[in-house]
Write a structure and sequence with these properties.
about 30% helix; six-stranded mixed β-sheet; single chain; 4 helices
Length: about 150
C-alpha cells in the first residue's frame, strides 16, 4: 500500500516522531505541508493527514492542504499529538473527507510535549511524550491500517 502523509510538525517535533515510527511499518512518503512542492496525491493508495492540536484543532495549514489537494474517493486517516486535550481532533479533516467521498480508515492520537503559552511557565506539559509506549501504539495502528487495506 503506497501511503502519503501530509503533515505539520513544529515546536518539539512530536508529530514527526510519531510518523517516523509509523513509517517503520511500511512504505510511507512524508509531505511537509509548509514546503512548496508538486503534490500528486492521486498516485497514492491511502493518504494521511497529521499535526499537533493547536487551540483544540488540527493545524490550519493541514486542513487547507487537505481541502486543496485531497483527491475524491481516496481512503484517509488522521494522526495528531496533543499536550493537554485532543480538542476536536480531526473533525475538520473528517468533514473534508466526507465532502470528497473519502472513506476514513481511523485516527491515532497521543500525548506530545507542549510548552505553548502558559505551559511554558511551568516547563511544559506531557513531558517525555511521545514516549516508547506511544510510538509502539502508533506503529500498531499503522500496521492494522495497512492490513485492513491489503487484499487477501
Amino acid at each position: 500500500m503506497k501511503t502519503a502523509v501530509c503533515y505539520y510538525s513544529r515546536h518539539h517535533g512530536n508529530t514527526l516522531k510519531v510518523l517516523e515510527a509509523m513509517a517503520q511499518e511500511g512504505e510511507m512518503d512524508l509531505i511537509d505541508v509548509t514546503t512548496r512542492q508538486l503534490v500528486r496525491l492521486e498516485e497514492y493508495d491511502c493518504i494521511g493527514f497529521a499535526s499537533g492540536i493547536y487551540g483544540f484543532e488540527m493545524q490550519k495549514a493541514v486542513v487547507e492542504f487537505a481541502r486543496q489537494y485531497l483527491p475524491a474517493g481516496k481512503p484517509v486517516f488522521f494522526v495528531y499529538t496533543f499536550g493537554g486535550a485532543r480538542g476536536t481532533g480531526a473533525k475538520a479533516l473528517a468533514a473534508i473527507a466526507k465532502e470528497k467521498g473519502c472513506p476514513v480508515l481511523g485516527e491515532f492520537g497521543c500525548k506530545g510535549y507542549d510548552t505553548f503559552g502558559p505551559f511554558k511557565l511551568v516547563g511544559g506539559i506531557a513531558k517525555g511524550h511521545p514516549d516508547q509506549k506511544d510510538l509502539a501504539a502508533a506503529r500498531a495502528f499503522y500496521r492494522r491500517l495497512r492490513r485492513s487495506q491489503t487484499p487477501d
